[in-house]
Amino acid sequence: MLIIGERINSTRKSIDRAVRAKDADFIREEALNQVNAGAHMLDVNCGTLDAQEEPAVMEWLVQTVQEIAGVPLCIDSPNYKALAAGLSVHRGKAMINSISGETERYKKVLPLVKEYGASVVALCMDDRGIPANKNQALEVGVKLVNDLLDAGVPVDDIYFDPLVRSVATNPETVVETLRLMEEMASRFSGLHFVSGLSNVSFGLPERRHLNRAYVVLSMASGLDAVIVDPLDSTLMALVYATEALLNKDRFCMQYIRCYHQGKLKA
Length: 266
What we know:
Blueprint: E1 2-9, H1 13-21, H2 24-36, E2 41-45, H3 54-69, E3 73-76, H4 80-89, E4 95-101, H5 103-116, E5 119-126, H6 134-150, E6 158-161, H7 173-187, E7 192-196, H8 207-220, E8 225-228, H9 233-245, H10 253-260
Parallel strand pairs: 1-2, 1-8, 2-3, 3-4, 4-5, 5-6, 6-7, 7-8
Helix pairs in contact: 2-3, 3-4, 4-5, 6-7, 8-9, 9-10
């Protein structure tokens, strides 16, 4: 399971302040805490800044995090100029968050994917928005993945995000998302699946319980990357336990190692 730490995101007030003040020490501490908690990659987002400022700040943010963290980054922005700026200084193979079937976004992001050999989060949406049901989502997802493959992007570099919605307003969303991932996996061998957690529980109390349950269910249906807060030790323990139960952790070696490292404590 690829754990992508979500905490360096300027929608969080503390990160927004640190980014605007160029508080490198604060950013580095956030990065190290996530890596020490088990993150394999860190998402970096400074999208609350003005669109003209964002590229330069993204460049600074990528350099600041990579100086200390020693892991690749998921460069996250709707602003393709900010993506390009972050990629230009990134060391190693980056992930781009994100591309979609939206015409303009696809045209602007695809050249960056190819130029930098980056992996990419592929959002299941097009010019019509987020699909209204599973059948439409399958249509959108198949076209998007086929377009990326036809453009020369290796399947191993594509992380399909089914864009789960809130179960509070879309009661069928999780069941349909699980089925969508299963159908996409049957059509595209080697395709990766990624998801964030915030949408599924939006508008409900004690959201962490729903988020954690969603991760476990999704892993059983093929989810192999997740954008999360790795400082949620209960969620991380559930990920390790689920990998063991799904035979993705042979003889439970990772689970045992995490136990000895104290990572399974409540």
